[in-house]
Amino acid sequence: MRYRPISPAALTAELTDRIEAVTGRSRIAVAVDGAEGATDTTALANALVDPLRLRGRPTVRISARDFLRPASLRFEHGRQDPDARYTDWLDVNALRREVLDPLADGGRGEVLPALWDAGRDRATRRARVPVPEGGVVLVDGELLLGTGLAFDLVVHLWCSPAALRRRVPAGDAWALPAYARYEEEVDPAALADVVVRVDDPRHPAVYEGS
């Protein structure tokens, strides 16, 4: 596989160009997908906000972590069940209903920025946020592909298996089988529009083909 080395700043600029090139929709949703703890999807999504706004694209930031299911459902089989993390943690229907569907043509154009406070295990009760025409909603999170969520552009942050094992915090190592299953069953690198190798986040590289 061929990867092109790129600086973090140049990566942000390149992704901003890619997002701007998405046409045919008045409002778009962009996903930044990657294993939590091993990749910093939040930092990359945050880095895209100001460049997009400088180009006149109103931008809303949303984290998939704020659309997790209640603890009674996530932890039904224990707090460290990798299969549950893979299939049961993210409230896919809520993310679709509250974020993606409103962006569709004919949608109301207002998104819910957060649904569930996982730390307190209760609803956030946040107000909806309008997304003007030309707006971009940036969603970061893990295990987002293969769920039927209709993103207009997907950036997948990929680590080699060795780097993934090295970079996932020791307390979250139990989740490694979930990431392995995601790699095997979904093959997110094949589905994403942009794949960025982040074995060393200071020196990312963009996938350019095999």
TrEMBL record:
Top-level taxon of origin: Bacteria
A Gene Ontology molecular function term of the record: kinase activity
Entry keywords, A to Z: Kinase, Transferase
InterPro entries assigned to the protein according to its UniProt record, in alphabetical order: P-loop_NTPase
Name listed for the protein in its UniProt record: Uridine kinase
